[in-house]
């Protein structure tokens, strides 16, 4: 997995801009976008008036803290188009979240917004080591989910050969990897492990394919998962980050030279990290909630949008030469942190414990209930296809599947590992492959909290 000595940039002027020039550019764009939304989006005008702040009050970058936060609740309150800053006839694309917790979050794009989106996704691909003319297999979901189309247009802008295969259908993915000579593949990290296991079980070994890079995002993952993917297939695995409310994929991406934090494209996205409880800024290196302001969006800019994602930022120089700050891997979500019998539990802890366990797929869900006065945590985990076939699972389901001796033994092993990792006892349920519900983007809802809301 050799890395070229000289880094390649997509937009070298912006990606290597000295910090003082970058911050001047950010201030100019921040002042423009605050004035823009104040006069075009009634919801923002009302919130700014209530906070006693005018666009003219933004004289320095630090003045952004005078502005009120935006949350997903604001987007749902104004559903569907109340946060748009342009008339609907100037919007040429609409995407939306899956809406699993209520009304979907709707986002719009002007033609220029789509150009910016393609630009930042092209940067992501170059950061990952992709090159013009290479075959790009896009296994993110297409449709209202932003993952598929965002990366699609970025790869076309870069000049790659795009294969819009979308998610799922693993046998077809393997055929395309082999027959089309794919160099770069994008998907969720959990699906990359599925691909790796399927390739190995079909007799492929590192070096048999042209595949060099996996670009992985849309769900949290760990260094353990990276090592497993890279070692099994002899490829690079790099992290991409984005969210629909900000633009979709393309907010930040790891560079292949360092793989040590994702560079945020600060000419388009102004980042803050705040204490999730108080909203106060935290210093670099401290984990807090990521907050983004879009500096160039036209159809639906967001001001100080609270993502719910927990991470830290690193402003120190990177070996790749880019001057953008780097964000750490997302360590959890403010709404995903669980307190079970006095112990803080994050899905990422469960994931880290499960990686590398034989016969267990990287698909899991945490279900929290309350029995009497005590909270109970159940971890549902899918087994691998190979294990399912081995125990005759095609013919079995439900209680019969769970009663098989091999399944019981695996469940006990998973239980032991999770109890040790979390420091509390959990109930483990093993399920057949592909039985935990997924959204249209292929993501699992990691946490289901069924505790009474008024308790």
Give a quick rundown of the structure:
With 455 residues, this protein is of the alpha/beta class.
Strand and helix map with partners:
Elements: H1 12-15, H2 19-40, H3 42-51, H4 72-77, E1 93-96, E2 106-109, H5 111-127, E3 135-138, H6 146-158, E4 161-163, H7 170-179, E5 184-187, H8 189-201, E6 213-216, H9 223-233, E7 236-243, E8 248-254, E9 262-264, E10 269-274, E11 288-294, E12 305-311, E13 313-314, E14 326-327, E15 332-333, E16 338-340, E17 343-345, H10 347-354, E18 360-371, E19 374-383, H11 385-390, H12 398-403, H13 405-422, E20 427-431, E21 447-449
Parallel strand pairs: 3-4, 3-5, 5-6, 6-7, 18-21, 19-20
Antiparallel strand pairs: 1-2, 7-8, 8-9, 9-14, 10-11, 11-12, 12-15, 13-14, 16-17, 18-19
Helix pairs in contact: 2-3, 5-6, 7-8, 8-9, 10-13
Pathway: Aromatic compound metabolism; phenylacetate degradation
Family: Belongs to the phenylacetyl-CoA ligase family.
Enzyme class: ligase
């Amino acid at each position: 997995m050799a890395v070229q000595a000289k880094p390649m940039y997509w937009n070298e002027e912006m990606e290597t801009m000295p910090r003082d020039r970058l911050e001047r550019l950010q201030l100019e764009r921040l002042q423009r976008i605050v004035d823009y939304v104040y006069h075009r989006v009634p919801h923002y005008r009302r919130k700014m008036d209530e906070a006693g702040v005018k666009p003219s009050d933004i004289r320095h970058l630090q003045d952004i803290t005078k502005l009120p936060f935006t949350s997903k609740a604001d987007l749902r309150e104004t559903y569907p188009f109340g946060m748009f800053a342009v008339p609907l006839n100037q919007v040429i694309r609409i995407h939306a979240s899956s809406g699993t917790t209520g009304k979907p979050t709707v986002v719009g794009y002007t033609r220029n917004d789509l150009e910016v989106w393609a630009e930042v996704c092209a940067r992501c691909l170059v950061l990952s080591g992709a090159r013009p003319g290479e075959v790009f297999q896009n296994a993110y979901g297409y449709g209202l989910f932003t993952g598929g189309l965002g990366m699609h247009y970025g790869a076309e802008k870069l000049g790659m050969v795009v294969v819009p295969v979308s998610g799922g259908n693993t046998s077809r993915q393997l055929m395309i990897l082999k027959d089309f000579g794919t160099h770069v593949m994008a998907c969720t990290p959990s699906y990359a492990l599925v691909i790796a296991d399927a390739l190995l079980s079909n007799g492929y070994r590192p070096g048999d394919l042209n595949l060099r890079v996996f670009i992985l995002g849309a769900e949290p993952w760990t260094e353990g998962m990276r090592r497993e993917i890279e070692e099994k297939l002899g490829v690079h695995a790099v992290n991409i980050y984005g969210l629909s409310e900000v633009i979709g994929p393309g907010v930040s991406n790891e560079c292949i030279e360092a793989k040590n934090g994702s560079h945020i494209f600060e000419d388009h996205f102004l980042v803050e990290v705040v204490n999730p409880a108080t909203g106060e800024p935290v210093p670099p290196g401290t984990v807090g909630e990521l907050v983004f302001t879009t500096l160039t969006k036209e159809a639906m800019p967001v001001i100080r949008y609270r993502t719910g994602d927990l991470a830290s930022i690193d402003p120190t120089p990177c070996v790749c030469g880019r001057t953008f700050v780097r964000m750490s891997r997302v360590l959890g979500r403010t709404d995903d942190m669980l307190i079970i019998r006095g112990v803080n539990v994050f899905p990422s802890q469960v994931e880290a414990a499960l990686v590398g366990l034989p016969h267990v797929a990287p698909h899991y869900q945490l279900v929290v209930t309350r029995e009497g006065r005590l909270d109970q945590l159940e971890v549902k985990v899918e087994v691998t296809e190979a294990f399912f076939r081995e125990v005759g699972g095609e013919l079995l389901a439900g209680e019969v599947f769970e009663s098989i001796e091999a399944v019981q033994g695996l469940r006990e092993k998973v239980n032991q590992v999770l109890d040790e990792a979390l420091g509390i006892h959990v109930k483990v349920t093993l399920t057949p492959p592909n039985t935990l519900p997924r959204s249209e983007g292929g993501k699992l809802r990691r946490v289901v909290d069924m505790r009474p809301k008024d308790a």
